[in-house]
Amino acid sequence: MPFSGKNRVIVAFFLSAFSVACTTSSYRVIDQDRYRTELQVTPDRILLECEDIKDHANAGDPEGNFGFMIHVLDEEDTVLTMIQEPVTTRKHCFKRRDYIAKILRNGKSIYIGTHLTLNKPRVKGNRSFSTFAKKGTFYENGRSLQLSVIQNEHGQCYSATNEMDPPCMPPEFPIKGSPNS
Question: pTM above the 0.85 mark?
Fold first, then answer.
């Protein structure tokens, strides 16, 4: 007997909930050369952080010194850290974090371009850790890259070079495998 009315709505709700619950969390290296690494990850594997950097020389500065970082949970469940230099103010760091958080919220597949490569071996026994919502707490692996660009599959983008105005100008994209390639 076919579903009708209220039953059809209930079945559709459960099917959509099941498909959301089955979304696969992923991390993969798309490409890497001597100077650059390109990643594709799901938003649940990304953690944004504005770290208060204690600088005794500028202790009286009301804006403070903040470093912006992106932590990514890799395929071995260790944490890779990407930094964006230079150190900035609290206000600017949180503006950057909020802008990138919007890119993550609006996407299911995130493409990240970095300077440097993943050739350095993972460090075992590192005591630094990061906690990812719905995933847990994982140790950092001692690897660090410099953020170049981050984009979702809809083209929403942030460039470490151009910041938020204008977003992502060439030559940063296409990243191989990204929507623009």
Answer: no
